Amino acid sequence: MEAVALSGLALALALALPSVALENGLARTPPMGWMSWERFRCNVDCQADPHNCISEQLFFEMADRLAEDGWRELGYEYINMDDCWSAKQRDAAGQLVPDPKRFPSGIKALADYVHARGLKLGIYGDLGVFTCGGYPGTTLENVKQDAQTFAAWGVDMLKLDGCYSSAEEQAKGYPEMARALNATGRPIVYSCSWPAYQGGLPPKVNYTILAEICNLWRNYDDIQDSWESVLSIVDWFFTNQDVLQPAAGPGHWNDPDMLIIGNFGLSFEQSRSQMALWTVMAAPLLMSTDLRTISPSAKEILQNRLMIQINQDPLGIQGRRIVKEKSHIEVFLRPLSRAASALVFFSRRTDMPFRYTTSLAKLHFPEDAVYEVQDVYVGKIVGALRTADNFSVVINPSGVVMWYLRPMALPVQPWHVARQQAPGEGFHPALL
Ligand code: GLA
Fold first, then answer.
1. Which residue has its alpha carbon closest to ligand 1 atom 3?
2. How far is the CA of 256 from the centre of ligand 1 (A)?
3. What is the pLDDT of residues 51-96, one digit of tens each?
């Protein structure tokens, strides 16, 4: 039974999926870790604010937290420097160098520190004359040299931003950096901001090409520390899901930007919603918060094991919004391996907890199946549910209920493998 299902999957994959991924073998599941930008920005005033400025101290301390507070074991392994780490000028050899006051030990020493704790180091560059924060950029002439510098330092991930360059320069430079990184021989996950600078949509953005070049890419605006910002990102990604959803898969992911859970802008319910919706999107889980002072409740959301298991599902199928009710309830579905699924019931209401009634049949699950349902946040098994059964969930304002559904009995009829579907075909849980 298992063998038949597996060979069916292999065949379906071979037939349906062109091999388009960047073949560096990296990021087979969405990258997880920590990134400095949203929380710590370009604070370079180490005199006035020594504990929060962009300095090696900040990264040493966050690396300690990742290694000691249970994050690393859950998969949060990247510690990513964003903008404002470098000196304002390249050195005499034209090489990028870190700010000597704020990074006196140098980036190689930082990478060694991070590696010694079983973590990986990410760095930030910008294809253009300057970075967005006004630090030296990587123009086309610098691409090779900078790739070699990053590799020599022992860097494991590069975010290449796109401020201060033209569309033509980006079309040349992003693929060139992919080649330059590969040529170093060091495995370096490559995150491209290219689509975000070209509006994120075809015809200006070609997601097939992008997946051949980059492991992940920013499609849209920067996240800010507010619910409004999270909602605008969610709206854009799901409004454009017919374009974006098929672009994602093992080795190549859409990136709706960092998790802001643990900061100042989200309520408890909204924090749970960001985590659930990012997981449905198969998004990278890059936290940008102060891990030294994070609250237990924010930590619990970010360290939810079942959530992370769903986010990291090996099939790497991005989920979709499948229902948008007039009542301002929305339902999202992500197909998972072993014919499992994740469902997110999301309330945009602003009045009170809402009782939403539906059935798996209405959500296009296969007829005559039975599922074991587990509530991802409560942790408990809710019970067994047949496709035809009506059920209700109570969803708090701006909150979610999230379910993990494992098949207990499946129909005899073969089920279509839901993978990369044309718009309008509907979207079904997969029997894989
Ligand atoms: C851009 C990027 C952000 C961040 C800043 C740094 O705005 O989109 O994620 O890297 O630049 O200046």
1. 222
2. 13
3. 999 999 999 999 999 999 999 999 999 999 999 999 999 999 999 9
